[in-house]
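Input record (one chain):
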Amino acid sequence: MSGMLSHPSIRALQSLLRIRMSHQNLRFLSDLEHLSHITHLYLGHNLLIKLPDMSSLVSLRFLILADNMLESIAGLEKSPVELLDLSGNKFSQLDCYPSKITYLMLRDNPMAFLPDYRLEMCRRFPDLEELDEREISSLEKRLARPNDPFEEEEESICTGEYDQVLQAILDRSKERQQQVYILILDHI
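The corresponding structure, as predicted from the sequence alone:
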């Protein structure tokens, strides 16, 4: 069957740690239990609409599923994946998700345009360091977990720093307004 990777094909790949199957017009995957040693799996730019159970991929850390037709990542709940690229799919929400994600890409999905999208991803993925190739700021982390007792001391220090930075910005803004006003008066 065209577009389906199955049992005989997978068994030939057992000695590999990284498998690239991007741009292959794959529609389905099966028999992944033979790939427990895989650390990197590239499945981007295919026609996948559903994932098989990937719980047997116990060594998988890097998974690229960008530019498919996925709406769900059911099958990845217990995955040890740390980097997950889901950009360019059809996700309006994440129904389930692996908890160890540190790098996540979801751009070009309907959910990426929702209000508080970044904040919600920070809540769901406490170890998240980057979202859509942008670092998660300490402010985003604090806003995502406002009742975290380990953040309280840092928050008070950061709040003071924030106030100082904000005041410096306001002072510069006033200075610039005065400079512009003087320039306008000089030309009148």
